[in-house]
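OP here, attaching both records as promised.
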Amino acid sequence: MSSSTSSFQLTLSGGVTKKLSRTNYILWRTQITPQLQGAGVYHYVDGTSTEPAKTHITKDAAGKETEGPNPLHPLWVKEDQQVLGYLLQHLSKEVLVTVTAITTARELWVALASMFSSQSLSRVNNIRTALINAQKSNQSVSSFFAAMKGLADELAAAGKPIQDDELISYIIHGVDQDYQPLVSALDARVTPVTLDELFAMRSNFDQRM
């Protein structure tokens, strides 16, 4: 563990765009997870790295057992506290005040997941509703596609990704009657349309209109 300390200290010096607030847990987790994985310390939060015992038993040449300090324990604590400190730096004050009693990185990670789990489910439902009800209206093709792709990306970040064909159905559903010739052409296709193809087709259709 000691050989990795300096390297992950350097990697974890990188920040994230937004600190965790009461409304952005999914996006915060999406930003913070690669930082931990890239530094090779994600095991401190996912439960696979457990705290070593403070003492251990050794035997001398005569077989006599002696209990003494476990050198792995202070190293584990040092690295765990560095991860904990990194996470705490990326919490807003409103969230930070609710976790002041937490002492390990794993404990903090679990507490945050529990704290925002119901909120995350609500956000997923809201995103799906937004996809179903989305309308292009007066937006440009690029703006409408970007908005729809953004909603799909949020679902993926929440662990609820949708397939491209489902996103395409939402996009097609969001156009008005002026696009009926394009919709009819898509219905007549033998092979499914891709997102890139749909974007190009709608852009060309708008130019002709």
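Record two, same layout:
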Amino acid sequence: MGEVITITSGKGGVGKSTATANIAVGLAQNGKKVVAVDFDIGLRNLDMILGLENRIVYDVVDVMEGKCNLSQALINDKRSKSLYFLPASQSKDKDILNKEKVKILIEDLKKDFDYVLLDSPAGIESGFEHSIFWADRALVIVTPEVSSVRDSDRVIGIIDAKSDKAKNGSEVQKHIIINRLKPELVQRGEMLSNEDVLNILALPLIGLVPEDNKVVSATNSGEPVIYTNSPSGEAYKRIVNRILGNEVAFPEFKSQSGFVGVFKRLFQ
């Protein structure tokens, strides 16, 4: 049975869908069979990041409503043949999701895939709860800003209270990805440091992704940045290796005036 990983955040615009796409590609590059599911009903954009928007015929709601079967809705990635994508609906309301139907869908996916990645909608509405309820692991995307950290702290509390594992006396494994890190702002005290974020959220770090203009061009071209050797692409490769259980050191990020944010701990 596959592992369900929900990629989530406390607010929109922190790079959640970008992280989902890049991690999915990276796992597939490592020989894993992966499906990325967009649960952001009404606001999908994971399809554009993967460059698959023109291939959508059916979506996740069509599957759960019985308008098509799962194999009809799944889209095979253009470059990674072990990567598949299940799009969100743009025309339906997020409240259409039903917990039991979501469970059936995820159980079916777990039978066929090593990893089921769920791109959660931001915030704490019903779509978010459906995406975290059946999770085995949650990756919480946070930017080093007080508002993002505060909202993520609330999301972590909801995962610990409302997931299926929590209801059964267990716990969803949780890790933090700090995104859009700007070393020069950390050095000037204008952005929270890695230690600040981790002290507040009290969860282990699994990834540091620096601010990188390459992300924008990669998104526009529909080719995730992990295909490049850019700083963010290399960061996502390290995250994938940590998900796979490998110990990978955290790098030093350099500002114009020197090294900042040295993080010497290994992922545990």
